[in-house]
Amino acid sequence: MSDIHTVDARGLSCPQPAMLARQALEKMDKGTIEVLVDSTTARENVSRLARNSGWNVTVEDQPEGSYRIMLKK
Amino acid sequence: MSSVSRFLTSHWGPILTGLVVGILAPILVKLGNPGNMGICMVCFARDIAGALGLHQASVVQYIRPEIIGLLFGALIAALIFREFKPRTGSAPLVRFLLGMFAVFGALVFLGCPWRAYLRLSGGDWNAIFGILGLIAGIGIGIVFLRMGFSLGRNRPAPKALGWMMPAVMIALLVLLIAAPQFGRDASGNPTGPIFFSEKGPGSLHAPLIISLAIGLVIGFLAQRSRFCTVGAIRDMILLRDSHLLNGIAALIVAAFITNLVLGQFHPGFENQPVAHSNGWWNFGGMALAGLAFTLAGGCPGRQLFLAGEGDGDAAIFVFGMIVGAGFAHNFSIASSPTGPAAFGPITVIVGLVICVIIGLTMREAKA
User: Fold this and answer.
1) Is the CB of residue B219 less than 8 Å from the CB of residue B39?
2) Residue B205 and residue B77: Cα distance in Å, rounded?
3) Prediction pTM value
4) Based on the number of CB atoms within 10 Å of its own CB, is B240 exposed (0-12), middle (13-18) or buried (19 or more)?
5) Which of B349, B363, B359 has the alpha carbon at shortest distance from B280?
């Protein structure tokens, strides 16, 4: 059982969501990171960054129109 | 439609957008726009400011339909793909000031990043200094981002807020077509309220409907592909991500070939259209612009496309650009083909100092 690290990047301008996600990825060799964003651009940028770093990416749409991006390795 | 969307959000999206811009922008020049100015957000903001009487530089006054088309192209894409999400509240006042300073810097160079790449593709080697300055300014912005710079979070806003900018653009379109004139002064000069250049770059434009249509196409593609002429360099330096930079490479290559085919490639430093050859201030002006755009989160085109998605803060940035363009001419900041204006260089220095202060002081407020 590992802790889930959460990054809340909702409402932030480019490139801050991707920067915050990368900081979280760099701190962890493996595990689970949850990134919350509320724009499709941030969703794409964070997903691309994580995939390029070898992380498994799944995205869940949240009811209020934001996205929960789960990064696993 | 979803396969189109998937393609445009894939790594092919920015490349396709860059190719389309690279082909259509030189065609706009062929059809009447000023040299190497098929698309230029800053020059067009300046022309709109002049047309509205915010400055009296009689050679740069026209309501550019491309700007209207770009916003509506982005709006249509956002509506179709459910990305029209009105939002605001991320330091709008600072964004207005950044829009002003970005325009001051860009008008010392004479072009936004879009035009810097288009000038390069037309053989205007002065653009090299501008692009180097742009990279330097983005680099300084990245230092502040790494230090924790943030303009804070936006929050969802009522739908009505997202429709304000399209409404403004409709008003501009009406003013463009109606071009109301209240009369002439004793010397016979039009007294406005709308001014259109009778000579100079402002008098040079492609047919309205073509400018509007090309704006729509580019706005649609750019909204889907997140095309950004500043983010391209920023993401490469900051995140080692070439996703957007591929689009800029495509733009430069496509525009170079199109210019060559249309007989519009004229290599050299001197006598370039709507340009000067002072390398230091081409560099300095774009360094200021690059820093201001980076702190605001994207290039002027991207700000316009975000405004089309309902982003009120990006819309405020665009207004900062238009108002700033008015000041740039009234205060002798904007360069002319003969070189930097009297107060261009000092404004670049003051602008850099103010943007550095913004970069050092703006942090996300803790709740």
Assistant:
1) no
2) 26
3) 0.97
4) exposed
5) B349
CA distance B225 to chain A (A): 9
Query: CB neighbours of B354 closer than 8 A, spacing ≥ 6?
Result: B97, B101
Where do the domains of chain B lie?
2-180+191-361
Nearest-CA distance A7 → chain B (Å) = 14
Write down the ipTM of this complex.
Answer: 0.94
- At A54, phi and psi to the nearest 5? 85, 20
Confidence label for A63 from pLDDT (cuts 50, 70 and 90): confident
According to the model, what pLDDT value does residue B187 have? 87
Q: Could you confirm whether domain A4-72 is CATH 3.30.110.40? A: yes
Taking an 8 Å cut-off on Cβ atoms, the answer to whether A11 and B234 are in contact is: no
State how beta strands A32-37 and B155-156 pair. unpaired
Query: Do residues B223 and B309 touch, judged by C-beta distance below 8 A?
Result: yes
DSSP string, B202-235: GG----HHHHHHHHHHHHHHHHHHT--TTHHHHH
- Confidence class of residue A1 from pLDDT cuts 50, 70 and 90? very low
Contact B241 A12 (CB under 8 A): no
**Helices (H), strands (E): how many in chain B?**
15, 2
> Considering only CB atoms, which residues of chain A are within 8 Å of chain B?
10-16, 18-19, 22, 38-41, 44-45, 48-49, 52, 65
Question: What pLDDT, on the 0 to 100 scale, is given for residue B190?
Answer: 86
